[in-house]
Amino acid sequence: DGHFVPSLTFGPQLVASLKKKTSLPLDVHLMVENPRSFIPLFHEAGADWISIHLEASAHLHKDITLIKEFNRKAGLALNPATPIHLLNEIIKELDYVLIMTVNPGWGGQEIIESCHAKISHLKNWIRGQKLDIPIEVDGGVKLENMEDLINDGVDIFVVGSAIFNEKKPIDAIIKMKQLAEKYSSS
After folding, report:
1. Which Pfam families does this one have (predicted)?
2. How do residues 3-27 score in pLDDT, each as one tens digit?
3. What are the pLDDT digits (tens) for 56-80?
4. Whole-angstrom Cα distance, residue 44 to residue 12?
5. What is the enclosing helix (H) or strand (E) of 30?
6. How far is Cα 78 from Cα 40, in angstroms, rounded to an integer?
7. DSSP letter string over 112-166?
8. How far is 88 from 94, CA to CA, in rounded Å?
9. pTM confidence score
10. Which CATH superfamily is domain 12-184 in?
């Protein structure tokens, strides 16, 4: 929206166009203020997974409930400095948690190192509650740090610059996919 983060990226029109071309699930991360006004637009466009920022929602339970009423997977995103304990009241309502490993808004950043401990702590907390909630990360993901992130407890990766800045993006995708498959089969 240009307010929660300064940059603008993809809107519901692109999601609708992609939905016509793929049967793969579309994961939409709303980095916007007042996410409730955007949730219906992305539902109608065909998003399968919708995450909102804890920091941007005035009525978190209502926003998560709205996503679920549309039969979409509901996720909650946390910025790097946002503490995990703020999930206490909502964790059981979530289908996944998205940890921002960079300050949102711009591609090509390096992972904030303290996020490794945050991810491990979150994974242990989820397991301790006997919940089955995957952890997704966004920001600074590249082949060189994926193994550490997997060991931290990451289940889903959002990858941008590490693919699109390569001369042969397909080669980067293949290598990342091979690494992920190595761990998913073990």
Report:
1. Ribul_P_3_epim (PF00834)
2. 444 445 678 999 999 999 999 999 9
3. 998 999 999 999 999 999 999 999 9
4. 8
5. strand 27-30
6. 21
7. PTHHHHHHHHHHHHHHHTT----EEEESS--HHHHHHHHHHT--EEE-SHHHHTS
8. 11
9. 0.90
10. Aldolase class I (3.20.20.70)
